Structure formats: C-alpha cells, structure tokens
Amino acid sequence: MEISKPHLCLLLLNSLVFVLLSAADDAQLSHGYNCSSDRSIYPCKSYAFYLAGAESSLLDLASIGDLFGVSRLMIARATNISSPTAALSYGQTLLIPLLCSCISNHSYSPVDYQIRAGDTYYLVSTFQFSNLTSYPAVEDANPLLVPTNLTIGVMVTFPIFCQCPKNRSQFIITYVLQPSDSYASIASRFGSDVQTLIDLNGREGSVQPYSTILIPVSRIPPYSMSSSAPPPSRKRHLNGAVVGLSIALGVMGLFWVVLLLQISRLKKRCSWTRKTDKELGEKKIGGSSEQKPIMDISEWLDRYKLYKIEELREATADFDSNCLICGSVYRGEIGREVYAIKKMKWNAADELKILQKVNHTNLVKLEGFCIDPEPGNCCLVYEYVSNGSLHSWLHGHSRRPHKLDWRSRLRIALDLAHGLQYIHEHTLPRVVHKDIKSSNVLLDSRLRAKIANFGLARSGHNAVTTHIVGTQGYVSPEYITDGIVSTKMDVFAYGVVMLELLTGREAVTEEGRMLWVEAEGWGKGEKLEEWMDEALAVAEEECPVESLVMAMKIAKACLQREPGKRPTMVEVVYALAKADDMSADFSGEGMSVGASGRVVAR
Ligand SMILES: *[C@@H]1O[C@H](CO)[C@@H](O)[C@H](O)[C@H]1NC(C)=O
Ligand SMILES: *[C@@H]1O[C@H](CO)[C@@H](O)[C@H](O)[C@H]1NC(C)=O
Ligand SMILES: *[C@@H]1O[C@H](CO)[C@@H](O)[C@H](O)[C@H]1NC(C)=O
Ligand SMILES: *[C@@H]1O[C@H](CO)[C@@H](O)[C@H](O)[C@H]1NC(C)=O
Ligand SMILES: *[C@@H]1O[C@H](CO)[C@@H](O)[C@H](O)[C@H]1NC(C)=O
Ligand SMILES: *[C@@H]1O[C@H](CO)[C@@H](O)[C@H](O)[C@H]1NC(C)=O
C-alpha cells in the first residue's frame, strides 16, 4: 500500500504532537517511581515530608493521621513532637511514616481515601496530599474507577510516592520540591549531599517545583523545624526501635486502644471474666518498656453518637430473634443505615464517655452507644459488615456465590495482620485480643477484613475455667497450660486462621483434632497437595506456588510452640507483603491485592 505525501505528513505531525504531549506529560505529571529491579528491598519503611496547613486545611495530627492512615502518635514520634495533642503551627513540618511497597512495578505506599463531595483526583492529590502523589498516578493505581465519575463514599487508593533504599541502613524521605528550594539547601537541611540528590533525582533543573524528590538519610534527623516556636516538651526517651516500629498502616490506633483499655477495665469488674493476677502482671510487664504520652481525650468526647433505647428497639423489632446475627448482636436499621447492635449488661455511663470513634479500616468501627438505665443494659452500635464472617466463607455450606481465590485470601491475611499489629504496637499496656478466630474476622462488601469482638462478645460459654477464655483450636499451648497472656497468643491464633485460609479446613476437625497440630507434621512445602485447599488447586493459574509456600512458612512460624520464637505482627506484615508481591507478579495483570481490595471478587 502506498501512502500519499499529505497523508504521511499528517501521520508525522500526529506522532510529533503525540511525542510533544507525552513529553509534557512526563515533565509535569509524574506517574511516580518505578520499582527498583532488586525487588527484595520491598517493602520498607519510608517517610513523607508534609507541611501542616499548606493550602490544605489540615492543622492537627489527628486529621493528618486519618488522611494517611497513620496514628498521630506515629507521626509525633517520627517528627519528634512531644505532645501529639498539641495544635500544630501553620507550616509546621511533619514526617509521615509509610510502608513503601512495589505494586505493579510502581513504588508507592497505598493510602485509602474515601471520596467526599467535590473531590477529584487532582484536588485531593494537590491539596490534601500536598503533591505527594499526582492525579495520573492515582488513575494508574485505580484502574477500575472512572475518574470523571466518582461516587461519594467510594474508596480510592492514593499512591503516595516513595522509594526503598538500596542501602538498608538508610531511609528515603519523599519531599515535595518548593519553588524556593535548591539541592544545596535541601542537602544541608537533611544532612545529605548534592551529588546524592542528583544521582537519585536527576540534575537540578530537571525537577519541576511541586514534584517529589527522594532524599536518602541515614537516620531520621531532629525535625523540630516548625516555623514558630516548638511546643513545650516533656522529656521523653525515643529509641530507634520505637521509631522503626512506627510504620504507617492504619488510622487512629490510639482511640481503639482507649476503647480497649476501657473495655478491659470494665471486664475486670464483671464476674464472668475476672482477670487473674498473672494476667494483670503480664500486662504491666508488656507496657513498662517505654514511656508514652498520656492521651488527652477531652477533645474526642463528643465524637460518638448517643442513641436512645427506643431507637434501637425500633431498629431491631424490640430485639427480635429474627434480627439476631449471632450471640447478642442484632442487625438493626436506623434511618436508612444498617448497623450491628450489641446488647450487653453494663452500667457504666461515665466510662462510655471515653470510648472513641475508631477509624481503622481493619477493625470493626464503633458508631455509638446507648444506655438503658432501667436494667442497667448497654448497647454498642457498630458498623454493619455486610459479607459475614470469614468462617462462613471458608467453611459455610456453599451459600456463598463463589469460593475465595488466593489473592483475596492473602488480602484478608494482610488486613487481619494490619489490624492486629495496630492493637499490639500502639497500646499501653499492650492489649491482646485473646479471641482471634475466623468467625471474628468479618468481610465487608469488598471482601476487606475487619476484626470484630474485641473481648466484648466473650460471654460465659467460653470461660472454661475462671480465667481461660478463647476458642478451642485457636488458643496457644502456653495459655492453656500456664494461663500466660501475651501478644504472642494472638500471633498463634493468627497462624491458625492462616492455616484455615491455606487449607480450607476448620481449626478443629470433625474428629476433634487440632488443625495446628496436624500442620506440625506437614512437609517442608514441596507437597502442596498434602494441605492445599482444593478450591485453590482448581484455579491453579491464579495461585502461585511460591506465594502459597511462603504463606505456609509464615503460618508455621506463628504456630511455634515456644512463644518467644513466634514473629511479631510487624514481622508478619512485612513477610506477607512480600508474598503478596509474588502473587501480583505472578498474575502479570498489573494489579495487586495489596494495593486495593478491588481485585478480589470475580
Ligand atoms: C518506568 O517504567 C516505564 C516502563 O517500564 C518507562 O516507560 C518509564 O520511563 C519508567 N519511568 C522512570 C521514571 O524510570
Ligand atoms: C519495572 O521498572 C523497571 C525500572 O524502570 C524496569 O527496568 C522494568 O522493565 C519494569 N518492569 C516491568 C514489568 O514493567
Ligand atoms: C501542589 O502543586 C500545585 C502546582 O502543581 C500548586 O499550585 C499547589 O500549591 C501545590 N500544593 C501544595 C500544598 O503545595
Ligand atoms: C457513574 O457511576 C454510576 C455509579 O457507579 C453509574 O450508575 C453511572 O452509569 C456512571 N455514569 C457514567 C457516565 O459513567
Ligand atoms: C550505607 O549507609 C550507611 C549509613 O549512611 C553508610 O555508613 C554505609 O557506608 C552505606 N553502605 C553502602 C554500601 O553504601
Ligand atoms: C526532640 O526534641 C527535643 C526538644 O523538643 C530535643 O531536646 C531532642 O533532642 C529531640 N530528639 C531528637 C532525637 O532529635
């Protein structure tokens, strides 16, 4: 075929325009950073440099923490702010700790953001996230959403740019270049040097103002660089390990903590879960390792909704058995929203004031409460998690539309690990859930997992002896024999849930054998058919063997009989994120369950 001259010309012109356009695109609109070819450096901890109050309205740690899915204590620690509740000054600089991952060949930290009226990818990236991401990158990270047609309430993953250092003793700070900056000024501010910045980011003029640059640092410098006087500080010891643990993975762990502590205090009063001295002693030991600031809770007192008992009666048809979900939890419709309403014996009105609105994606959220003065009842109103428990998905009698595929299961394992990491790492004294099991893991409409029943639902039937609570098949050996309570018992139970995810079998078999005891006999991973869930084998092409084997290794590490040998939840999160990367690489479709829960149900 012959192409006429004008035609050819047009073609050339077209491609020229295309080239020009894409060049402009590349110069101004960053799609973020590619992963380094060495994938073993992911995930890692990294930091984003954030200016409080800069063109966004966020001027307090709590809402900035909410935005990034980080507890404010973690930001306060990384930034060396002594009082997390103090108001921030305008333009105060903050370091936001992030978990940097490689997701479909892009290096970023996925932050979930719920769309509100008026939001666009551009506005949220530019203002709320202060250019730490860009709208083209948001589009890349959310292939299933139409950017021009965002519904209010939809969850969008904002990929906060980050990178992992090749040198493991360093951290990389993501910094948004300001018009007044030069490499020299940045280098001196962060204790880096100009050549390093050029090596990592290209020559000085090539980076547009308001795009990100990467600054490697060998330690987190003291950033008491607020524009005004630093807030008065209490003397406090910060050690590297604490900072190291401050990895960003969720929101407002602290409020949850306050809630949990309150609940455990209340439970102490109830006769059916009286704590032994041993337990209390253990908790003290766990908590005395470091000093943390005491929470000023007064500012949160009004965050809860107080319901009237009549309202809840109406919602549940006077606590009709038809509305019963399980235990003493009822499904109730208030207004047009559905809630899970838990009824309990309790007469502690003033204690309730301290319960705080929790907003961590992997913990079932408390919406409000109600006190019924007459019989001294109390109702807690939770978000309704629509897809039921993991137990029913894995072991239910085929009422589910489909079996969970491997990536959904991995995502659930990660969600659960994130939730547990929160309660373990951000509490003082440390809070232990004590009843992790697949029926306490609820799945929402996107099959994202949320931990439920924080000790609340543990009613009498589990209290085998005066102090042993928990569920058969999940309780750790040291707890059964010695009544020892520690975060490692949750790690153990978590290992059992992982086994359920891998094998599709129940924690206790019909013959009464423990799944975890059986797992001890399983080979070193070569013989997958020994344990792998048949439902996974069916869809083998979606189920990378390495990822499965790695997950089994993690499960078995959690199930060691010696509690000291079990990993912490932080370590589990890291290891799992790697298994997740493997599964994403394997599928080759350029999406990761780690990035968003959207990939799940097919
Ligand atoms: C990232 O990778 C893509 C494709 O592999 C390439 O086109 C692009 O130039 C890379 N970007 C950077 C900043 O290296
Ligand atoms: C991922 O990014 C790296 C770095 O730019 C590049 O070398 C590699 O080809 C990319 N891989 C894929 C699968 O796009
Ligand atoms: C982000 O960048 C845009 C220009 O691309 C700029 O107008 C805006 O002020 C920046 N946002 C912040 C918070 O600095
Ligand atoms: C926008 O999204 C809504 C709900 O997601 C859908 O019903 C509607 O058809 C979409 N509109 C367009 C123009 O895509
Ligand atoms: C890694 O970073 C540390 C601290 O900055 C430095 O002392 C060390 O020499 C670096 N190692 C390499 C291989 O660059
Ligand atoms: C943290 O800030 C205090 C004063 O606010 C200062 O004395 C201390 O040295 C700082 N710590 C670090 C690790 O920079």
TrEMBL record:
<keyword id="KW-0547">Nucleotide-binding</keyword>
<keyword id="KW-0067">ATP-binding</keyword>
<keyword id="KW-0812">Transmembrane</keyword>
<dbReference type="InterPro" id="IPR059143">
    <property type="entry name" value="NFP_LysM2"/>
</dbReference>
<dbReference type="InterPro" id="IPR018392">
    <property type="entry name" value="LysM"/>
</dbReference>
<keyword id="KW-1003">Cell membrane</keyword>
<dbReference type="Pfam" id="PF23446">
    <property type="entry name" value="LysM1_NFP_LYK"/>
</dbReference>
<feature type="signal peptide">
    <location>
        <begin position="1"/>
        <end position="24"/>
    </location>
</feature>
<dbReference type="GO" id="GO:0004672">
    <property type="term" value="F:protein kinase activity"/>
</dbReference>
<dbReference type="InterPro" id="IPR036779">
    <property type="entry name" value="LysM_dom_sf"/>
</dbReference>
<dbReference type="InterPro" id="IPR011009">
    <property type="entry name" value="Kinase-like_dom_sf"/>
</dbReference>
<dbReference type="GO" id="GO:0005886">
    <property type="term" value="C:plasma membrane"/>
</dbReference>
<dbReference type="Pfam" id="PF23457">
    <property type="entry name" value="LysM2_NFP"/>
</dbReference>
<protein>
    <submittedName>
        <fullName>LysM domain receptor-like kinase 4</fullName>
    </submittedName>
</protein>
<dbReference type="GO" id="GO:0005524">
    <property type="term" value="F:ATP binding"/>
</dbReference>
<dbReference type="InterPro" id="IPR052611">
    <property type="entry name" value="Plant_RLK_LysM"/>
</dbReference>
<keyword id="KW-1015">Disulfide bond</keyword>
<feature type="transmembrane region" description="Helical">
    <location>
        <begin position="238"/>
        <end position="261"/>
    </location>
</feature>
<dbReference type="Pfam" id="PF00069">
    <property type="entry name" value="Pkinase"/>
</dbReference>
<dbReference type="InterPro" id="IPR008271">
    <property type="entry name" value="Ser/Thr_kinase_AS"/>
</dbReference>
<keyword id="KW-0472">Membrane</keyword>
<dbReference type="Pfam" id="PF01476">
    <property type="entry name" value="LysM"/>
</dbReference>
<keyword id="KW-0675">Receptor</keyword>
<dbReference type="InterPro" id="IPR000719">
    <property type="entry name" value="Prot_kinase_dom"/>
</dbReference>
<keyword id="KW-0418">Kinase</keyword>
<keyword id="KW-0732">Signal</keyword>
<keyword id="KW-1133">Transmembrane helix</keyword>
<feature type="domain" description="Protein kinase">
    <location>
        <begin position="274"/>
        <end position="577"/>
    </location>
</feature>
<dbReference type="InterPro" id="IPR056561">
    <property type="entry name" value="NFP_LYK_LysM1"/>
</dbReference>
<keyword id="KW-0808">Transferase</keyword>
